[in-house]
Fold this protein.
Amino acid sequence: MAKKIGQKTKTAMACLEPEVRRVAFQEVSLGYTEEEAVREAERCIECKNKPCISGCPVEIDIRTFLQRVASREFEAAFQTLISKNVLPAICGRVCPQEDQCELKCTLGVKFEPVAIGRIERFIADYGAKMNWKATGELGAPTGHKVAVVGSGPAGLTAAADLARMGHQVTIFEALHKAGGVLMYGIPEFRLPKEIVQREILALQDLGVEFKLNHVIGRTFTVDELFTELGYEAVFIGTGAGLPYFPHIPGVNLIGVYSANEYLTRSNLMKAYRFPESDTPIIRGRNVAVIGGGNTAMDAVRTALRLGAEHAYLVYRRSRKEMPARAEEVDHAEEEGVEIMLLAAPVEVLGNDRSRVRALGCIRMELGEPDASGRRRPVEKPGSEFELEVDTVIFAVGQGANPLIRDTTPDLKMNRRGYIDADDATGATCKHGVFAGGDIVTGGATVISAMGAGRKAARAIDEYLRNPLPDGM
């Protein structure tokens, strides 16, 4: 007998008031209470085919998880979650569930889907408060050594899975804090750094070793990980951190940033505390951020918190085509971000001291769909205008850092400069080297990178236990 449908809309989640949060870096969304989490989990209609699981890159048994929350079996729900997802508090905050598990939710056909991500966040935080640990047994030690390059979501997931399989795993991280994009790319008000580090500690409990300030390609090459340090397999999960700038005049003026640099200075280097922390950042009075994704939203909302009187988001398409999460766009508007749709930059204008004084733009209109399925923006002749700003931040995509490519000549890259790796296994053309996440796909989501890390871990385990004969 089918479960009766009750509440047809998601249980709302409390947030800080806009006038409070626009000047502070504390977390905006406050999470569910116990009663709210139970009420939302009770909305699950427990359909037999469990389509939500097919939308989860790390294969969480979502129906069982929700049933346990609805029954107030919180520790059992935590174990269901942590057995598949080593970063549940992170995913519950930043993953686009609306495009993944919640998109597949049967309830969402007629009503709002179950708020799976919000419940995941509640259980992860509740489990941390109760100091619960994963109860799954670790595999017997295999004696095999694996190096993981990069401590972002792909690398952390691969490392955790490999450690659970019994392998000896070391993560090499270029920066002074582990976490990759989770630490430097996502602002404190959306993902507190304390939570990132808390979830990383769970990997140390599994026996994963972290070597920070190790730049693979400089400290050691990929080949030296094999020949000098004795690793038998290497997983590369370095992400896509090389910023792109448009080919327009003025991008070298003082006051022009990539979103990558702007967010790294603010997040990882705590420039928002200058001079308490000694990394400076321009505190623009009038700031323009170019782009329409989550990174653009993070940058423009950070600019507000750093004191901008006007924070503009300049996006060349319409609101419908904007790739950022709807929740993040809503939060930005509530906080006072001024969104300028159907506009694109054509020039950054400077003063006699080579500092930004304005952004030259042109109005756009939408034409036919392009390869992404979104309607292509087309310039409207004679519609040029200037936006008076002193800071311009470009959030228009990023590529692969060439360091590993340049120091590993026998590692095949695709035409976009990313590592060429098998979709199902992460295997590359180089014997014993696997890769996954943004370094393979280009910029994507945290959970998709985690899914790639999981697939690669399985393939690495198979490779180590059943090595190919020499010459194959």
